[in-house]
Amino acid sequence: MVSDAAAQGPRISLGGLDLLSTAVVVLDGDFRVRYVNPAAEALLETASRTLIGQPFLRLFPELEDLEPDVREALEVHWSYSAPSVGFPRSGRESLQLACLVTRTEAPDAPFIVELRPIEMMLRLAREERLLSEQQVHRELIRNLAHEIRNPLGGLRGSAQLLEAELAEPGLREYTQVIIKEADRLQVLLDRLLTPHRAPKTGLLNIHEVLERVGRVVEAEFGPRIEIQRDYDPSVPELHGDMEQLIQALLNVARNAAQAILGGPEGKGTILFRTRVLRQVMIARQRYRLALELQIVDSGPGVPEDLQERIFHPLVSGRDGGSGIGLALAQTFVQYHGGVIECESRPGHTVFGITLPLA
Ligand SMILES: Nc1ncnc2c1ncn2[C@@H]1O[C@H](COP(=O)(O)OP(=O)(O)OP(=O)(O)O)[C@@H](O)[C@H]1O
Ligand SMILES: [Mg+2]
User: Which of 138, 255, 308 to mutate to test the pocket of ligand 1 (most atoms within 8 A of CB)?
Assistant: First the structure.
């Protein structure tokens, strides 16, 4: 029997589960709730004192009658998984969860349940789809940029030769247009092609990176942009490429400043926030520690028709914008094993970057 084997087993520190970002419920040998971590309380929107002592399976209509099956799966396979069960909520539709029950040898926690909102699983699937889409885009753009580069050099060189031959100086106005536009295109191509330099990684302090970004933004945009900081001092150093991270965050912060200055108020705030996350999934990988970095601005928000596409290269909603800034930021963040995402409404735009720390 489970309980016999459990008697000599290791003890689990239930307090340690308090820190997990995953919703965890611990059951006793009779499947009654023994302990609920804060993440599970938040997910189920129910206080632990209400849940403790309740028969766990009865919380979910789909599981209520399955006790013999669940018990058998746990006896034989040590785990039971229900990909989608509904947790009823009064006055609202029920919350769809994936539920994984694992049997342990710890006497104080014979069964541990992990609960994950299905939305999160859908998000993971979406992230994966986006990732492969981005790869295709990037390849396409890179090839195109390479194809444009050579003829562009030819055009520029010929315009220069032509200019030297021109008898009438007034005509140079036209060759100068060709040369200047070729140079502008060249800069664009260089930006499209840069991410492919070899990364130079080392240990770095993310707050130092943010301070550098802040100083550039302050110098570039002046006092109508107020930079605020909300740093978590416990963020450890991370392995990364300083220049790439500065570039990525600068692109995001610059956009924020440009949006604020272009908005109705013409001034506003950009907040840099850092936090340490524990036990997170990033791009299908689980990490013990991660950094959550948010750049929040009070500007008018990302136009709705652009929201799905702002990370695509060459997508811009700004006069004079080339639409490369965020595509580059995303590439650099992905080089660091992280993800970048955006949530925006007027007055509150959040660019969130999650980077693995360990
Ligand atoms: N914080 C923000 N608030 C509102 N809109 C934003 C914000 N950040 C990005 N955007 C929108 O997303 C678009 C794409 O941004 P991205 O940085 O990729 O290109 P860009 O700023 O237009 O050009 P550049 O290559 O010079 O950065 C912007 O043009 C803008 O419309
Ligand atoms: Mg930009």
Answer: 255
